[in-house]
Amino acid sequence: MANEDLLWEHPLVARLIRGGRRLRQDHRSRPWLLNTGLVVLVLLLFGLPDLLHRGDRDELVRVTDFPVVGAVALQLGLALPLLWRRSRPVTVFAAVMTVFLLQWSMDVWLHIDIALFIALYGVARRGGLRYLPWVCGVTVAAMVLVVLRVSTVASPFEAMFFLCSAATAAVALGLGVRIGQAHLGALRERAARLERERDQQNRLAAAAERARVAREMHDIIGHNLSVIIGLADGGAYAADVVPERSKEALQLIAGTSRQALGELRRMLGVLREEPGPGPQGPELSPQPGIADLEALCERVRVAGPEVAYRTAGDLDTLNEGVQLTVYRIAQESLTNALKHAGPDTRTFLTVAADAGGIRIRVEDTGPADGRTVPAGPDTGHTDVGRSWPSGQGIAGMAERAALYGGTVTAGPRPGGGWAVETRLDPAPPPAVPARLHRCEAS
């Protein structure tokens, strides 16, 4: 193994590898250069000996008396068509075969006849496969004519074996290279396809992550801002009527803002590559769950609405993902009720688990005085009630519910107000008696 490593690291081997790479690049960018080099090489190696040594009486066929000009013409006729062997292999083969048969009809044998086998290789390598049987048949027929021509001075069996072996080797080599290139091309295409699929998966994962972050940001910031706005409106009203209540409202605004900032830092800490306490990021706390719904109810209550919270079933055994989904859906629904129905509404939150799944229902009675609270980007109350929201609120709830095979429905209540009901499919544990939690507005 060490000897092989030393061999590959040898400067001569490295130089040869670099030369091969440059030759391959030149072959792809300038194919005519390699074709011209091949023609020149064939003329020098196989054509020049025929001109320098015209033969003697011991050769297979005497060419001593054949004119030099004729020999040069035959050599050029055999070699020059190879310049187009890549673009028109079948045409090149036909031209070379024509000159080859003309040459043998004049009882002339030349070393440069190897051009016929190069042309045959070109057909097998790059020509249409439908032409290959015809090309092989013409080659065999030509070989038979050549053998018959030289049968008086050479063994026909040896001559036929030699010629057929050379033709078979040319075809086999061409087909082998063709199959290898096709396999290599398929591997490259597969690698490119896998790379495209990987890039697409990365883009989809990034888009899903952006959607998740946007959903979390909307749930965290949207809820707390709605509470802050409600407190600010109440504090402004209380400043003229009960000044001490405005101070309490400001304290609640500060507390809600700090809580929102803490949740935002926790979420950003999750996005860090190396989360943890200290300079690398804030210490992470658990994601909110069903146990935090009472605190959520309390935060909404301080903004004005009366909130009733009711649970049914064994919800504590649900996994963290389901609990986070329940919490965020309840949070968004309560936020919408506060935003669109105002601080004077009464809101009912029900979270129940039974054999059919998990049900989250949030309904409000609408504004106490019957007026319509202007709707924000998520829409809400209109002159004739609420319409299905087009913003991120309901869409985010629907996306969260879809992760667990659930659905979200929303619409006006018969007695006034608005109701949002979400059903999740995960099979929860058996139900236990319901508990009622009331958070009365002060």
Can you tell me about this structure?
The chain is α+β, with helices and mostly antiparallel strands and 442 residues long. Among the domains are: 29-154, no CATH class; 290-442, 2-Layer Sandwich (Heat Shock Protein 90). Helix content is 61%, strand content 10%. The protein has twelve helices and eight strands. It has helices at 2-8, 11-29, 31-52, 68-79, 89-105, 114-126, 132-150, 156-241, 243-271, 293-302, 320-341, 392-403; strands spanning 306-312, 346-354, 357-364, 381-382, 385-386, 407-412, 418-424, 435-439. The strands form two sheets. The protein has a six-stranded mixed sheet with strand order 6-7-3-2-1-8. Strands 4-5 form a two-stranded antiparallel sheet. A hairpin with a 5-residue loop joins strand 6 and strand 7 (418-424). Helix 3 packs antiparallel against helix 4 (68-79) and helix 11 (320-341) packs antiparallel against helix 12 (392-403). The longest helix has 86 residues, at 156-241. The protein is rod-shaped.
In short:
The chain has 442 residues and is an alpha+beta fold. The protein is rod-shaped, with a radius of gyration of 44 Å. 61% of the residues lie in helices and 10% in strands.
Properties at a glance:
12 helices, two-stranded antiparallel sheet, 8 strands, single chain, Heat Shock Protein 90, rod-shaped, 442 residues, alpha+beta
Radius of gyration: 44 Å
Overall residue-averaged pLDDT value = 75
Order of helices and strands: HHHHHHHHHHEHEEEEHEEE
Provide the CATH superfamily of the domain at 290-442. Histidine kinase-like ATPase, C-terminal domain
**Major beta sheet, specifics?**
6 strands, mixed
User: Per CATH, which architecture of the domain at 290-442?
Assistant: 2-Layer Sandwich
How much helical structure, as a percent, in the residues? 55-70%
CATH class of the domain at 290-442: Alpha Beta
Beta-strand content: 5-15%
Total number of helices: 12
Q: Would you tell me the structural class of the helices and strands?
A: alpha+beta
Major beta sheet, strand line-up: 6-7-3-2-1-8
**Total count of strands:** 8
Distance between the termini: 84 Å
The name of the CATH topology of the domain at 290-442 is Heat Shock Protein 90
Poorly predicted parts: 56-64, 275-282, 372-391, 428-442
Approximate shape: rod-shaped
